[in-house]
Amino acid sequence: MDVASYFSVFILIIIEDTQDNLKKVKFQVVFIKTNSRNMAEMSSLWIAEFILLLATFTFLLYKYSTRNYDYFKKRNVYFVKPIPFLGSMVPVLSMKTTIGEWLRDLYNSIDRPYFGIFVLDDPYIVIKSPDLIKHILVKDFSKFSDRNVLAPDHNEVVSNNLFIKKSPEWKKLRIRMSPVFTSGKLKAMFPLMNDVGLELKKYVKEHLGKLESKELSAKFSTDVIAKCAFAINANSFQLENAEFRQIGRTLFDFTIRNGFSQTAYFLKPGWARALHLEFFNIQALKTLKKYISEYHRKERAKQCQRKRSY
Q1: Where does the sequence pass through the membrane (predicted)?
Q2: Which of 18, 71, 86, 240 could bridge to 123 as Cys pair (CB 3.0-4.6 Å)?
Q3: Residues of the chain below pLDDT 70
Q4: At residue 20, what are phi and psi to the nearest 5 degrees?
């Protein structure tokens, strides 16, 4: 064979109808003898086709991502000018500020009763007028009760959250949750929170000069939630690697995975549903359930032991 000649290999995918009307896929390898000149021409053609395909894909993606950007303009509503693919949230997505600070700055700088923003490619409206807010939260609340957050049916921990649940189930859950926040229950929680506050005060005195405010707040929040919600002494201030605190880190500390999943749940629920993303680490939730069950089992065993002692 001539040195300049060689074989190009192509794989053909052949779909055939079988007797039971099912599709059968066959792979066939085809050898085509070419020379260097033909191959160079084919390579140039492939590159041109690839560039054309990439340009077409980019154009279609651009058109899709900007399809809603005239939403507020058509309705004569003032809006923050969006950037293709990113919307109005560039400072937030670039991590220069938080979403709360960004909305606060917009709220203070735009002197209008309401204005529009774009979260990626979706239009949202920010209400400033107290009268409009009253209508939305009171008079017309039935039309605005649903949140945009994804409520996955397969994860009861997330879907049964009062801030995520959709109507009409949200109303039923609110009725069930209301007794938890009566004045009597809140008063009963105060001594528990006060105990954690005393532990915080003691911890600060013992660790002056080497305190990290974020971790300090996390320890306090963990112990308050553990005591008030689960009747558990988490001991985050006494034990450096308290188990309940470690579980909390796994659930809430920022990782690329957690950040993307939780952002998608709030901003792009359709993506979260399509990609089967989990709001929390499933293994961490299982560990939390196991820890709570085991903790209360041991506490019941201790109480039985004390009764036998008497």
Answers
A1: 45-65
A2: 71
A3: 1-42, 305-310
A4: -95, 25
